[in-house]
Amino acid sequence: MIQIRIGGWAGQGVILAGTILAETFSRVLKKNVVMTRSYTAAVRSGITTSDIIVDDDEIYDLIITRPNVMIFMYQKTLDRYIDLAKKSDFVIVDSSLIKNIPEEIKNVYKIDASRIASEISSPRIANMVLLGYYSRVTGHLGLRDLEESIRNTVSKRFVEEDIRAITAGYSFSPQ
Amino acid sequence: MIQIRIGGWAGQGVILAGTILAETFSRVLKKNVVMTRSYTAAVRSGITTSDIIVDDDEIYDLIITRPNVMIFMYQKTLDRYIDLAKKSDFVIVDSSLIKNIPEEIKNVYKIDASRIASEISSPRIANMVLLGYYSRVTGHLGLRDLEESIRNTVSKRFVEEDIRAITAGYSFSPQ
Amino acid sequence: MITSRYIKENYVRRLPSAFCPGCGDGQILNAIIRAIDHLKIDRKDVAAVSGIGCSAWIPSPYLRVDSLHTTHGRPIAFATGLKVANPRLKVIVVSGDGDATGIGGNHLLHAARSNVGITVIMVNNGLYAMTGGQVAPTTPHEAKTTTTPYGNPAFSLDVSRVVAAAGASYVARWTTWHMNQLIRSIEKAIMKKGFSFIEVLSQCPTYEGRMLNMDHIQMLEWFKNKFREDADGIYKIGEFVDIEKPELTEELEKMIERVKK
Amino acid sequence: MITSRYIKENYVRRLPSAFCPGCGDGQILNAIIRAIDHLKIDRKDVAAVSGIGCSAWIPSPYLRVDSLHTTHGRPIAFATGLKVANPRLKVIVVSGDGDATGIGGNHLLHAARSNVGITVIMVNNGLYAMTGGQVAPTTPHEAKTTTTPYGNPAFSLDVSRVVAAAGASYVARWTTWHMNQLIRSIEKAIMKKGFSFIEVLSQCPTYEGRMLNMDHIQMLEWFKNKFREDADGIYKIGEFVDIEKPELTEELEKMIERVKK
Amino acid sequence: MKAKEIIIDRNLCKGCSICIHVCPKKTLGISEDINEYGLFYPKVEDLASCIVCRLCELYCPDFAIEVVQE
Amino acid sequence: MKAKEIIIDRNLCKGCSICIHVCPKKTLGISEDINEYGLFYPKVEDLASCIVCRLCELYCPDFAIEVVQE
Amino acid sequence: MISPGEYFVEGDLAAAYGAIKAGCLFFAGYPITPASEITQAMAELLPRVGGKFLQMEDEIASISAIIGASWAGLKSMTATSGPGFSLMQENIGYAAMTETPIVIIDVQRAGPAIGQASRPAQGDIMQSRFGSHGDYETIVLSPNSVQEMFDLTIKAFNLAETYRVPVIVLSDAEVGHMMERLIVPENVEIVNRRIAKSLQETTIYDESLVSPMGRFGDGLELMITGSTHRPDGTRDTGTPEVQESLVKRLVNKIEKNRERIENWEEMYTDDADILVISHGASSRPSKGAVIRARKEGIKAGFLRPKVLWPSPEKRMKELESNVKKVILPEMSLRGYKMEVERIFRGKLLHMPKVGGVVPTVEEILKKIREASL
Amino acid sequence: MISPGEYFVEGDLAAAYGAIKAGCLFFAGYPITPASEITQAMAELLPRVGGKFLQMEDEIASISAIIGASWAGLKSMTATSGPGFSLMQENIGYAAMTETPIVIIDVQRAGPAIGQASRPAQGDIMQSRFGSHGDYETIVLSPNSVQEMFDLTIKAFNLAETYRVPVIVLSDAEVGHMMERLIVPENVEIVNRRIAKSLQETTIYDESLVSPMGRFGDGLELMITGSTHRPDGTRDTGTPEVQESLVKRLVNKIEKNRERIENWEEMYTDDADILVISHGASSRPSKGAVIRARKEGIKAGFLRPKVLWPSPEKRMKELESNVKKVILPEMSLRGYKMEVERIFRGKLLHMPKVGGVVPTVEEILKKIREASL
Ligand SMILES: Cc1ncc(C[n+]2csc(CCOP(=O)(O)OP(=O)(O)O)c2C)c(N)n1
Ligand SMILES: Cc1ncc(C[n+]2csc(CCOP(=O)(O)OP(=O)(O)O)c2C)c(N)n1
Ligand code: SF4
Ligand code: SF4
Ligand code: SF4
Ligand code: SF4
Ligand code: SF4
Ligand code: SF4
Ligand SMILES: [Mg+2]
Ligand SMILES: [Mg+2]
């Protein structure tokens, strides 16, 4: 079983990233997958998360209890889920946006995702950069798998941009 | 215990008559009284009844099961309650309006109430004529008791007219 | 000319009606039947929808067409579903002033706005009759009713004006005195492509009569003398709106054609 | 002149707000605060009532007065009870176009009709924003939203026109571009004895922006250029109604005086 | 046009007298009898005066009156 | 009138640039930095040009800008 | 007003008298058979005591207005019947969530839907507790006489003010429309809410889990919301603990105080083999039948919840071990059945009467006799 | 449309797919979190299959419109969540009374009132049966996966058409918003109502107490009313027997066919000491916990009603005598508790979780362990 949480602020594309990741596991890798999302209201503000649970078996738990990977795009989201983050095998953060990472959190993987995204086109695709980096860091799936999923899911005019972003994330060396 | 049903057609003043009778038992004669009413809809049509149950004890039954008196102002109401009428000690009818009284019904007391009422003022006070006649026939209460009740209940401008009607009903000799 | 016998044999489910003596609701039934008959449309293509109230009983059970007697205030919403689901039907809503503008005012507004091709005939007797003569949105300021024993503190709604403002294709007001105009107006409304609305002032001798201190004959006289095409405000009768614009059902059908390709 | 700091210290409960970047709702909060401040009324005599929607969050929790955040579509009915129960209060309803005219259209109609002395500020962003950009009664014909992916088959409501027809004492329309006029208009509405209504066209960059294919700056420009006092229909801004007539609360108080004697 | 007969259905007539009121020719009047509900129904005062305009039928709320043409 | 300072609260500003757009004097411009949500906030391009009209404060939806008068 | 003494009035009017006596100063309603008489009476009576009456455009507006008025500090009420009661459900949940004291009288008629508009039934009992979405509790009273229409309406206000909950008086067309003697006593016990003097005070719960209530216009800067909120009113829909403690308290406010709220009448229960449980109009013949059964030597007993929710659970559980059969005569197929069955299970003989007519003593007695065999 | 194959979609979308597959041709709705996605999907899908979509002015209008459309002969549906579901209650009763087949999806969120609008809960179970006034019955289904959102929506249409009742799919924000694999099969079983060819036919009930349904526009001169009526539609509110036979049939239509309608999943129940009953989202961890408990040697069993109303009463009663304890994990303080308690009484350990979060396998397992001591 793999448990992943992506957390950010409304409007950052957290749920889109979660969807692409979940689809990759389900449709490309043929795993059992449950993806859930959480937001405080439909207005574009507040903490937003996307949780993905992957298993070869039937999935019983619908919420993350012992995460394998946590990806953070917003300081307050990290602050809120600090307890879970401490237990996670990998903690990936957009270091353009998150400055304070408490010492108790181990296995931190930083990437300047928003900046990298801005260089490609705009900070809005930082989520894709993080997905690429996730693939590189965890090896849970390959860059090609993500790419296939993006081609299936994302509307045509964004596909190339997104693929550049995941590739950039993938190429970033873990630090 | 005394059980009384007054039955007619919407708009004939069945409920007003029932109310006056019930009030007389309750407030003048200090009995326990329950008065209920039944009509098919609030529109001025359809069968309307008013049931009065009088007792010295607490009243448990809320509906008429074994009537002592039934007063009818409309043919179809009589037709509908024929089974109860057969059991009743007294069956009083406005013979201006009701022409067919089945033979099985005993103890019938007819009075040309609408005509008598018209002579006083209008057929609308036939209900009062019937109340007066009821008093005469059954002796359950006196003309004075009814009069007191009317003075307490009915709006001033109708009091005299109504009292003339009950008196006329009372004066009518039972046939 | 149409006779009572012809009407009873062809259009009325059963009689006598449950209305009080002299109630205008019977006249409106009479008018609707004559309009349908004049139009020579097949009765099976006509559907009547009503809410709850004395006036809601005009079609249900008396009018011999498919009839949907719904909940209080909601007939227009039911009718919208019925019409959109089967655009062939001529859907006629008969609704009281309380039903259509009290509890149901919002559905009236939105049916007019979306221009769904149904006809609403609103019987305005100035109060809630069926429940015993309570104040309605159409009750005059300061009038006494069973729930405004000291006079109505609120004002009455000029319903036709609001429906016109909301975007209806056809809006007219008549009274039960104006039987011939009313019948012609109903014919026009039924054939109108978009949303059509007819307000009919009607006498309710039992409660409205008490409020206005008139009997039904006096009310008919009042309708005749006071309600005129050249009068003002609520007393103005006639056709207020008669325009053409895209109708909802047609728009949906066109959309389906477009999308299915 | 009022500064941001002064406003934050005196009138705002907490920040940052939950609105999207560039959303007009923050501007409307700003305008309401300035109007209250200009009037120099005691904040404790002001009550804000709202329904559900992005715009309903303008007063709740941001505006530092007693606030009643009610159910979707019902703030005007709650406000009516509050006002009648304590006529001293200046009751301000802030409601979205969906809240006030979709589910809540009937309450708006009847508050206007009965002329209850509350103020309704309706934020018109042309759709249901909070739930994700669905079609509203204010959405233009043929516009694409999340529930009209092939275009809106219905028409939009000219809300101010309908409210005027229903009998309101004060009706005005502005946009978030017209901040100064809006503030003065809110002041006037609050002090108006009868029912007052202000429609404010506001930019919702997230959903309305997608529908109109504009960002919030383009929308502000559109408000500035297209919405004028001499324009027509929905583009016409300004004061449409400003009359005096008996107000409900006062009528009730007078009635009580009369009856108690 | 002349009327052969004017039929008032005593089961349907509610005695509202609207027919009497709208008749342009005073053909109809109020009877002294009451029907089964205790109400007075109309009667034909002068059949010959009837012009078969059928206003009485048009206005009768209860479909209770019928004019039979000669 | 002259501005002493123009304060942009980085915790409140959502980078909508409405202030920049309404400023009659082009006193404000867009910064290159992003705030904590990943959005660009405004910066003062030319303090001297400011006439303290406070239109920026009037239009800012987030009470994020404040002009301090000299 | 409503001077002490004897009256002969219908149940609906007695309820209006009770409301006035209880200190009700605001009523908003919409006519509906068989509750219109309450509305009409309030229209007549309220202005005479300086209170406000509004007829609104519908039942949703009516309950909204009384919640608004309650926040202005006035005791507020509405009255309706089934269809209107169904429409009020959303805002009953809102009143529960915002802890607004209001009284709702539902004069039940025979449903579903429009049904038999002027005939009595008892089909709204489960709805009165479960009609709105989500977790909440209300208090529901069941009068069986004109006198109780008066008494229990007063009690309803007292409970609403004490626990800051919507309280429902669940009457029916029989009790609402019947006329009987009403005694208006010299003194009635009245409870008034505790008014908070600061926002802080509104967050302090006493042992019954209730806090003083703020009032609009007092300068407390109240934040009232139907969204999940912290004790001071701050909306917080993202923290599970906030929802948990709020909702649990709303429910426990009734649950933990249930023994103070529960109320019932009983007779011959000590040694009863056959227990007749009944409420509202049908409890009248039920009681008569139990008395008659005793005269026939049958060990029948009688239990009548005057408070339906919370039910007399503890008392019923006590009786459960002793009785052999339980008869529940009521004018509904659902009525109170599930609650009684929950406790008495297989011992329950449900005796629903559908058709808009109250059962008779004779019918119930027959059932008792059968059960005693 | 909706070609057979594999999808990865959220539950709401799967429900819309199911509706289209079932032959739904009319949808009227009003947006609300977390059901808006169903409405949006229907807006997109329906025109493509020649169906009609309307967004109405509110939820009352929405349910009114689908009832109207159903009488025009189209399979019709709406979707909502708690607040909207509360508003629909009056007309749910109307649909039951007029025997109109309609499907309503309630994607439950945490209440009461506005509550936590985007968080899941299971607090509307009692409301789904008792939310409208008077005596009636509905059928209520409970999906626990994206696949079941599809499957049970189809089943809902089939049941609605078979029994001419409103059928409710009671989902929740968790199942509605989660994404999982969906398999759309080649063939799905579809039931269509029997259409009456004469008014007479509409009065003839088959052994399941259902009659063929008339259709507007066919010339049958239908009289449809929510008032008490005779079999041919004639309104008759004054005859007790008419009400009695109508209402009893409406209830018996479900009650007497319950064994055909009831549906549940069970596992390890044969020898279970501890039975875990759960439904919807919370049944997922419940099942996981039972499997884990078995691995630990605890004799746990699992029962999941897929049809909540009518409940699997007979099966529960069978199990009652064997099990020692019953655990009911659910996201509500009321949920299904009363129904389970009615059958298992003192054996029930209710395990409500309030706060908008699904319980975990670990939490439930802990409870099972405690119960097994
Ligand atoms: C939800 C609901 N509320 C109230 C009622 C009670 N009710 C029945 S008819 C009616 C008033 C009808 O008035 P109107 O529409 O003007 O018709 P009229 O009787 O005057 O013709 C009311 C309030 C109801 N049936 N349903
Ligand atoms: C009874 C009910 N139905 C639906 C909803 C869902 N809902 C919440 S906000 C909203 C729309 C708000 O639109 P609008 O009033 O225009 O406000 P905006 O968000 O656009 O400012 C809806 C439909 C609800 N909360 N309650
Ligand atoms: S109460 Fe009025 S509207 Fe109703 S039937 Fe009688 S006269 Fe007509
Ligand atoms: S969704 Fe639209 S209306 Fe709502 S906060 Fe965002 S921009 Fe404003
Ligand atoms: S109008 Fe009709 S109902 Fe009235 S009196 Fe004449 S015939 Fe009778
Ligand atoms: S047909 Fe004309 S003239 Fe003859 S009775 Fe009727 S109304 Fe009078
Ligand atoms: S208007 Fe306000 S929120 Fe927008 S960029 Fe300027 S300071 Fe920031
Ligand atoms: S005060 Fe006026 S000039 Fe100065 S920055 Fe603001 S808008 Fe520009
Ligand atoms: Mg009316
Ligand atoms: Mg909006």
Q: Please, how many helices of chain A?
A: 7
Q: Which structural class should the secondary elements of chain G be placed in?
A: alpha/beta
Unreliably modeled segments of chain A: none
The low-confidence runs of chain G, each spanning 5 or more residues with pLDDT under 50, are none
Record keyword descriptors for this entry.
heterooctamer; E: 70 residues; alpha+beta; Alpha-Beta Plaits; two-stranded antiparallel ribbon; two-stranded antiparallel sheet; 4 strands; globular; G: 373 residues; alpha/beta; Rossmann fold; 3 domains; 7-stranded mixed beta sheet; 13 helices; 38% helix; binds thiamine diphosphate; binds iron/sulfur cluster; binds magnesium ion
Protein architecture, described:
The complex is a heterooctamer, with 2 copies of chain A (about 180 residues), 2 copies of chain C (about 260 residues), 2 copies of chain E (about 70 residues) and 2 copies of chain G (about 375 residues). Chain A has about 180 residues and is α/β, with parallel strands linked by helices. Chain A has helices spanning about 15-30, 75-80, 80-85, 115-120, 125-140, 145-155, 155-170; strands at about 1-10, 30-40, 45-55, 70, 90-95, 110. Chain A has a single domain (about 1-170), classed as 3-Layer(aba) Sandwich (Pyruvate-ferredoxin Oxidoreductase, domain 3), CATH 3.40.920. Helix content of chain A is about 45%, strand content about 20%. The longest helix of chain A has 16 residues, at about 155-170. Chain A starts with a strand and ends with a helix. With about 260 residues, chain C is α/β, with parallel strands linked by helices. Chain C is built from 10 helices and 9 strands. Chain C has helices spanning about 5-10, 25-40, 75-85, 95-105, 105-115, 160-165, 180-190, 210, 215-225, 250-260; strands at about 45-50, 65-70, 90-95, 120-125, 125-130, 135, 170-175, 195-200, 240. In chain C, the strands form 2 sheets. A 7-stranded mixed β-sheet of chain C has the order 2-1-3-4-8-7-9, with helices on both faces. A two-stranded antiparallel ribbon of chain C has the order 5-6. In chain C, a hairpin with a 5-residue loop joins strand 5 and strand 6 (about 135). In chain C, helix 4 packs across helix 5 and helix 5 (about 105-115) packs parallel to helix 6 (about 160-165). Chain C starts with a helix and ends with a helix. Chain E is built from 2 helices and 4 strands; from the N terminus they run E-H-E-E-H-E. Chain E has helices at about 20, 55-60; strands at about 5-10, 30-35, 40-45, 65-70. Chain E has a two-stranded antiparallel ribbon with strand order 1-4. A two-stranded antiparallel ribbon of chain E has the order 2-3. Helix content of chain G is about 40%, strand content about 20%. The radius of gyration of chain G is 21 Å and the shape is globular. Chain G has a 7-stranded mixed β-sheet with strand order 3-2-4-5-7-6-13, sandwiched between helices. In chain G, helix 12 (about 335-345) links the parallel strand 14 (about 325-330) and strand 15. Classes of the chains: A alpha/beta (about 180), C alpha/beta (about 260), E alpha+beta (about 70), G alpha/beta (about 375). Chains in contact: A-D, A-F, A-G, A-H, B-C, B-E, B-G, B-H, C-D, C-E, C-G, C-H, D-F, D-G, D-H, G-H. The interface between G and H is large, with 64 and 64 residues. The complex binds thiamine diphosphate (TPP) (2 copies), iron/sulfur cluster (6 copies) and magnesium ion (2 copies). One iron/sulfur cluster binds next to strand 1 and helix 2 of chain F. One iron/sulfur cluster (SF4) binds next to loops of chain C.
